[in-house]
Design brief:
heterodimer, A: mainly alpha, globular, B: mainly alpha, MetI-like fold, 0% strand
């Protein structure tokens, strides 16, 4: 198990290097010059210095190497300076954003909490709704609840978030006026009223994202429960006189959760990608919105860094899912 | 000697059709999908208003007999625009799906059939699966939009770009499924028999392997259409798809959200069209999977 973990972690390094190279080379093709907006009155030698300060004007492989160095060495140093009060990163150049003219990581850290709140909350809510639906519709297969539930999850699976999001805005903000359509990130929760405000503005983005999660996870949960309900050990458990609740909620559920948990782990990076659209609809200024504005403003270091961080998430959760699978299911041993 | 009540042996395809018919959701989904295609492609023959005709005096109208779905902020007829948009959206969906299937099928067959290529090709598939797809799609569209619309004209260029971008980022699941099926097929006796009479690799793949992996390919085809339509709409919705004056369902939805405060009902039609199409295709895929998989067959009574 330990050797397997180590092997996976070691294999992740070339994967991530390759992905960062692909993203870098793709962005290399981008037209446009970040210095185009600098006024003509700025003398050429100053312009040249600004260029170097932005890390431009050097061959591709050197800039790629520098980006790697800055991302993997300088940024962790800055982090340790922040937390431990060391001075490792003093005088080191960091990855600079072309549109904000400040370190990319500082902007990302500012935007992170909004995304994490909305995305994390919606994932938890989605799972909490999905599991009971999946369990009950498998237990009562082909009942009215199952038919309706399956249909609703199919609808949730098919309606894209950019329609469901806009639809709930039309219903709850425009017609009924119950909920705000724009997510106000400057709101600080200090009293009961601001808490209610925060709660209200989170309902719609969270529920829209949660609908996608619910649709996927409850389908998996149902299928996995159905697989297990027909097994011999279930009959044995019933035959020895266990109550129906114990049989379903302890014996069957524990075994059915194994594949579902890996699906849940694999879905985490996906929902970050889906948040790009949801953030755009509800005007949440989180990471997804940052990525869109960076793409539109041709801010290549920002695009590179955010996209790469998403790739890191995907690779990391792939490994986590595989390891969880082995931890939860004693029949699976990788060594 | 045979039992007179026994039905005559049926061909494989009529057997599958019989299974498919019993899956009510799949049947309704399939009919709905065909209906949407028919309306979108044949509708303009009946409803002859031009989707790009600007009638500024009739702008922002609600539903009337002249314009059953109303008009937009430039007085263009929404029904005509919905049909024109649907043509593009469905065309993108079908072409991107075909490209993803071709790529994924090729990768899967090669990886499953030639043992030496299996490792490298599957690592490549894993690499592609670890890429953050939506951000990369956005970046690709942003980067190549200008150059391609300069060479092929704005519409063909963007169509080409979006189809290739979606196809190149969605072939991986097909490749994995096809590879697994080919690996299992390769061990069967009929492959051994074909090899013993001297069938070449090319003949083996085209004559014996491909016809037998048709069912997983058909199922991923339906899922691929749904995926491609949603991705194209998402790109258009984020403003990085087709040019503004060129309607697709995602683009119409994006235009409608800008007038959300004044005309909230306008988002309804394009959103409904996307959702219904994807829903019908998903049901179709569900039914196909059940019909083609012998283990889940509902036995005739």
């Amino acid at each position: 198990m330990l050797t397997y973990t180590i092997r996976r972690l070691v294999l992740a390094v070339p994967t991530l290097l390759f992905i960062s190279l692909v993203i870098f080379l793709l962005l290399e093709l981008a037209p446009g010059d970040p210095m185009a907006n600098v006024p003509l009155t700025v003398p050429p030698d100053v312009k040249e210095k600004m260029r170097i300060a932005l890390g431009l004007g050097e061959p591709t492989h050197i800039r790629f190497g520098k980006w790697l160095w800055q991302f993997f060495v300088v940024e962790p140093m800055v982090l340790s300076d922040h937390i431990l009060g060391t001075t490792l990163a003093e005088g080191q150049q960091r990855v600079l954003s072309w549109q904000f003219r400040s370190p990319v990581m500082d902007v990302i850290v500012q935007r992170m909490p909004q995304t994490l709140w909305v995305v994390g909350m919606s994932y938890v809510v989605g799972i909490l709704i999905a599991l009971p639906i999946g369990i009950y519709s498998a237990y009562r297969q082909y009942s009215v609840f199952d038919q309706v539930g399956t249909f609703i999850t199919m609808v949730g699976y098919s309606v894209p978030p950019f329609f469901s999001g806009v639809l709930v805005i039309v219903i709850f903000s425009v017609h009924l006026g119950w909920l705000p359509s724009i997510y106000d990130t400057t709101l600080r929760v200090t009293s009961w009223d601001t808490f209610v405000m925060q709660f209200k503005q989170m309902i719609m983005p969270v529920m829209v994202l949660a609908l996608q999660t619910t649709a996927q996870i409850s389908r998996y949960m149902r299928a996995s429960m159905l697989d297990n309900l027909g097994q011999d050990y279930v009959r044995t458990a019933r035959a020895k006189g266990l109550g129906e609740t114990t049989v379903v909620m302890v014996h069957v559920l524990r075994n059915s959760m194994i594949p579902v948990i890996t699906v849940i782990a694999l879905g985490v990076p996906q929902i970050f990608g889906g948040a790009i659209i949801t953030e755009q609809i509800f005007k949440v200024n989180g990471l997804g919105q940052l990525l869109i504005t960076a793409i539109q403003a041709n801010d290549l270091p920002m695009v590179q860094t955010v996209t790469f961080m998403l790739a890191v998430l995907i690779v990391a959760f792939n490994i986590i899912a595989d390891l969880l699978y082995a931890v939860l299911d004693p029949r699976i041993r990788y060594d | 000697m045979t039992d007179p009540a026994m039905p005559p042996p049926r061909s494989q395809w009529s057997e599958i059709w019989g299974q498919f018919k019993r899956h009510r959701g799949a049947l309704i989904g399939g009919i709905l999908f065909l209906l949407i295609i028919a309306i979108v492609f044949l509708g303009p023959l009946i409803w002859t208003l031009d989707a790009t005709y600007i009638d500024i005096r009739a702008r922002n109208q609600g539903p009337t007999w002249a314009h059953p779905f109303g008009t937009d902020q430039l007085g263009r007829d929404t029904l005509a625009r919905m049909m024109a948009g649907g043509q593009t959206s469905i065309a993108v969906g079908l072409t991107a799906m075909a490209l993803a299937l071709a790529l994924g099928g090729f990768m899967g067959v090669i990886a499953g059939y030639f043992r030496r290529l299996d490792g490298p090709l599957m690592r490549l598939t894993d690499l592609f699966l670890s890429l953050p797809l939506l951000p990369l799609l956005l970046v690709m569209v942003m980067l190549f939009r200008e150059t391609l619309s300069a060479t092929f004209g704005p519409e063909t260029g963007i169509f080409f770009l979006i189809v290739v971008a979606i196809g190149a980022t969605s072939w991986m699941p097909t490749a994995r499924i096809v590879r697994a099926d080919v690996l299992a097929l390769k061990e069967r006796e009929f492959v051994l028999a074909a090899r013993s009479i001297g069938t070449t690799n090319f003949g083996m793949i085209t004559r014996h392997i491909l016809p037998n992996i048709l069912s997983p390919i058909m199922v991923s085809a339906t899922l691929g259409i749904a995926n491609a339509i949603i991705t194209e709409s998402a790109l258009s919705f984020l403003g990085l798809g087709f040019p503004p004056d060129f309607p697709t369902w995602g683009r119409l939805l994006n235009d409608a959200t800008q007038y959300l405060q004044d005309y909230p009902e306008r988002v309804f039609w394009p959103g409904l069209a996307i959702s219904l199409t994807v829903l019908s295709v998903n049901y179709l895929g569900d039914g196909l999977r059940d019909a083609l998989d012998p283990r889940t067959r509902i036995r005739g009574r």
